[in-house]
């Protein structure tokens, strides 16, 4: 199965391996749909599900041009270059710098159809920072830099880390150099705020998942900065903290010798890692790692809650990733291992459960590759198990009723190593929810678990010395099905702390394994097949071989743009590589002998690409005096010339057992075999057009006669000597003879410069020297010419491939010693004036280049393969303009096909209009059979296939029985728009289709949550999952019977002799403890009293050891919030008499202990509380209000003070009915207007019964589709609730109504199609939502029809 798509010139890029210089930068997009990481000067985008390369974004090099438009004096080529290549930064180097930080924008898929093409509103934006201090904002869809962030400083402060912040608009926070923190406006690129933390070394910055305005920054010395971006422009609230209790942070770490005063932390201390992460389950809790410490830090208290030391046998921490659903931490270590930590019950402390190896010991090189970064991918199941009685559709979790209340969750960890590989590990965790005795388990897991690994990656393992090679096949193997360990990979398991973890290696993406040193392109001639006994010429295979510094040879499939196989041949750097025909390779390496005799050990090997075997030849027992300088293989692959440094060259016949034919003791400087002969034109093409005569075209007739007279089994090579002499030798069998060319009429003077490069294709020989001169010579006519390139010496010259009817046969690519290149056409009168200078687009210096001989038609563009100095491999298409023969330009490709081993199922990559159409189809409900196009094509049921292709597509839609909102014709039109994607099989894969089928069966809210999670909108998915519970909570609490029962059950009673205690106030504590299970990220949307109260109670135990005065005041407040007045009094009375707060605390203790409800006492306490509020003692005043039962006023004061979580916790403990709803309503207003979290605000509105406000919020956010499906979801929940609470009809009622059924059928049908929605005066809002949704659908249809389908 293959996926095809249109590509841009940048699709032909394979990146080199990532390194420590990239700072371990990597990031998963929201929802885990895409993985981005830095490799050299490129940003690599991969699909973590299918383990395929999506694209590569090369950072443009620093340019001296400060304007975004070319000058009038620029060349025609420069005027045609894309604007994205013009960087507003001065040139700091000739090539782009290392990418050091990456962050995906959390902006969701926009519903605003009027601005869907605006890159600033794209949901596929990626911020990338590099070592030169530049920050580029990429738009992945257009693959262009849409915005640069300029610091306007002379020094280049390298980027350490990036983070997206959400205030009134999207902001981007960045760390520049060692200590500068900057806040940018992501829409304009303007700097809003700066903060210099010198002399600290800031190392990382993270955003609070509960409040996107809040972010924290950590330094290597333990300095912690907490900041909140307020609504006012450039206004930031700051709090500074210091993490104590850690060892000397930089003890034992030496500063890098390359470090300067402006270097970031990763450059100053390259082996020191300090990481920071917010807990996704507990608000205000930070998880921090230093090299050997793991600690929890409470921002609200400004103190550490726990500190865990790393065992001595474990390597230092590299990074930390918290589990989004379980109280687990995944920590990467510098020694390539992964540790799993579990939180102790009732504490904010973690114990080590297990250690796992991230690098398999079998199939890897020695020494083992280093782990650079890890990422936790949530694309498989973004939402985990919510409750035992409510298992969501999205997770692949399996609840086993026979396991005593265990649930199983699967997670996928992506590991990026420095050998160019991405490893995909499946982490299966079986969590026992009833486990309580964690201390015993913690003691059992302090020792490191024994890890055993076995892996079988389909490799061939051997040694380069004994004639075998190690080859890793990449394209031939498909990823293992999810949740199933692949054959040959043994799962690691660990038991302890009430959990069992198993790791399985299920996928691998192999890119370039090391720094590229050389490049070879196959260009076989007719003799390549004649030698094997065939009658047809050998085809040009779409493969490119790359030699690497590690001794491996990577074979690139240019059609799939992937590494198809990798051979480990040499123990040192591959210094030369050539194809022998189209199925064999010859390579060499050498090493210097350091013993007394000295010399060099040369190693040559022939590799068969088909079998993977390699055979060394010319094996000598003793070192040689001279190393090998180069290899030159004939086009047929029958002959090989070995050039030595200051030694005679050797000519070998490359038979099954290579034979040396002759040694030539001539001082060669360059030597090149002739390329395959130019195709002879057909009779219909002979008179098609006439061109201006030129040295390269005037001898076409003589070329034909020469080819005819030449023996078909002989091959020739041209050469230049040190004295400037030129010559051509012919090899026939085992004989080498002079070709006897016709010498030039004007002899080339040796004083012009030493010949350093040559290209030979009958009848032309093109030469370049160290002075930049290019000369060409026709060996059959003797015509010659020359010109000067006005550049440095020439290192390589390559003839472009030609086809029948080609306009020019004299195009050459010239590589200079300054690692730049140019393209010249020797068939033009003035090649220099019409040259194509090197475009700045490659963004890297060029080490090697060659043309790809894949052209079959003269209208196809030329393709140039490049090995960059940044270890990347690039394909650049050169389209020659047809209006003027002197104009050459680089244009975007319009019909390039990329073949993939499996479809790229990433809906987030679809064009915005088609992505919105797919989301709407998934929301409305489509049958599972709609995704089965490929299985229908392969099946024998032709009638089913015909009906699916040409039939009524509306049959694919699910009959939901819900009222119709919007235009009923829209679903069929959307299915027609999405049909090209369905035929390619690139909508969603089989596993997700099965999950969607289960979601469709469960109901409308599950479908809506699935559609949101597919496009990475996890907050919206959580909202849809929580909506039924919030809606039912509102319905239950709004009924009179529920209000009376809640008041009698939940409201505590006070008396003089009975002081309220923790066990007496919340009577639902026992039920909460027995039924409550960690709901993961749904804690963010908690609204029920039981959930809020139990979360608050859980946090109290974390702060028992904090004894500072400020901490005591906050602990008292927490105890009062949950109704534990007895604990608050005990804590207040523990204040020492000599303390300055003894008397205020004693007064509060006395008042709290006297719960006498008398009017005079109440009035006095209110006055005292008011005075305390006036003197900025609001918390003390709130405690006094609680003592007299004024909880509504206490909640209002807490909300006025910004303590929103404390206010709702207090309300959950003491308030009910409308009082509790008012607290939720005000909290929802704050979350919507200040925290800008619409999904959390909607849940609170629904729980408070404010349906009109919820619809108004959706209208204001311009989400008509979400508002419509919100109405349908509420209608579905409300209808099911009414049907479950109403009594079934009696038999008499059925008999009485039997005669009236026919007359009432139409009325019942009309009533059924109306939206059943609770609330008063809501009909107008429903009509408005339906009208706007219909307009949105019609506009979306027109937009989809105007958008061209794009698979990638």
Automatic annotation (TrEMBL):
The UniProt entry, under Gene3D superfamilies, shows: YVTN repeat-like/Quinoprotein amine dehydrogenase
**Tell me, what's a Pfam family for it?**
TPR_WDR11
Residue span of region Disordered: 1-22, 434-501, 679-712, 1283-1311
Annotated GO CC locations? cytoplasm
Span of domain WDR11 second beta-propeller: 511-902
**Biased composition, Acidic residues: where in the chain?**
1301-1310
Annotated WDR11 TPR domain residues: 930-1344
Q: Which InterPro entries match?
A: Beta-prop_WDR11_1st, Beta-prop_WDR11_2nd, TPR_WDR11, WD40/YVTN_repeat-like_dom_sf, WD40_repeat_dom_sf, WD40_rpt, WDR11
Output the superkingdom of the source species: Eukaryota
Using the record, list the residue span of the signal peptide; answer none if the entry has no such feature: none
- State where composition is biased (Low complexity): 440-452, 693-708
- Tell me which stretches of the chain form a coiled coil: none
What positions does the domain WDR11 first beta-propeller occupy?
Answer: 16-509
Record's compositionally biased regions (Polar residues) = 465-475, 683-692, 1283-1293
PANTHER family with a match to the protein in the record: WD REPEAT-CONTAINING PROTEIN 11
Name by which UniProt lists this protein: Transducin family protein / WD-40 repeat family protein
